[in-house]
Amino acid sequence: MPPFFCPDQSGRLVTLEDLTGVGRTILSFHCGHLRPIRQIELHGLIEAKPAFASLQATVVSIIPEPQTWTGPLAHDLDEELILLSDVDNAFAFSTGSFIGSATMPLT
Predict the structure, then answer these.
(1) Residue 107 pLDDT
(2) Are 85 and 11 spatial neighbours (Cβ–Cβ below 8 Å)?
(3) What is the DSSP string of 36-57?
(4) pLDDT above 60: residue 53
(5) Which of 28, 35, 45 is nearest to 98 (CA)?
């Protein structure tokens, strides 16, 4: 997995090492604007959080929207997920496996 740093919903820069340094990380990539299907996936990830927590895994959604969008979205989701802004999908495409909306587990 290539290294990255992206701002979270509060504007704090987060690196891959920040995430994997505390345990397993599950990255969920979103390829386009936050349409209803994307919100369905985000709510599904929130529902699955207890299962991920039992594996000591953190869920992170990487969204091609600016922090000005992810902040309000995180608020709407009751801050249940870490949302990272990858405005031009640069990190998502650098993984070499980005085709559409996909979820990629990391160890």
Answers:
(1) 47
(2) no
(3) HHHHHHHHHHHHHHHHHHHTTE
(4) yes
(5) 28
Which pLDDT band holds residue 18 (cuts at 50, 70, 90)?
Answer: very high
Please provide the CATH number assigned to the domain covering 8-98.
3.40.30.10
Q: Would you kindly state where each structural domain of the chain is located, as residue ranges?
A: 8-98
Three-state DSSP state, 83: strand
For the record, the structure tokens of 48 come out as 């699955």
Nearest by Cα to 60 from 35, 37, 33, 91: 91
Q: Which two tokens stand for residue 70?
A: 């992810």
Q: How confident is the model at residue 81 (pLDDT cuts 50, 70, 90)?
A: confident
